[in-house]
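PROTEIN ENTRY
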Amino acid sequence: MKSYSSANWKGSGKEGSGTLTSKSKVLENTSYDFRSRFEDGTFTNPEELVAAAHAGCFSMKLSFVLGAAGFTPDNIDTKCTITLENGAITSSHLEVKASVPGIDAAKFAECAAEAKANCPISKLLNTEITMEANLA
């Protein structure tokens, strides 16, 4: 499977602005700019999109890992925080809360660690990935 998104940028790096469009059209001419990336703007930015991708990918991978271990989650909530410092993504931090009937904390921690290590976005990122995983 291949997926894609596209970007269009007009103007200088600091004063210009751009739009993002995804294959699914979930993003369609969605605005991004310098202020939203480095200051207090109201548009999206690449790091926010990476955070959404990592949170979503991890949650789905955790569901698969739990299923392979014989558990079906009722709910998985994942927040991902991407840190951008000096022009580089320096870390991705996952905060996970899940409701999984019948699982104990040790088995859940094991499943969460496996999902963190093996979700495709974790494998893609060349940065430190940390996690707090708790049962609800």
About this structure: The chain is about 35% helix and 35% strand. The beta strands are 5-10, 17-22, 30-33, 75-85, 88-99, 128-135. Residues 5-38 form one domain.
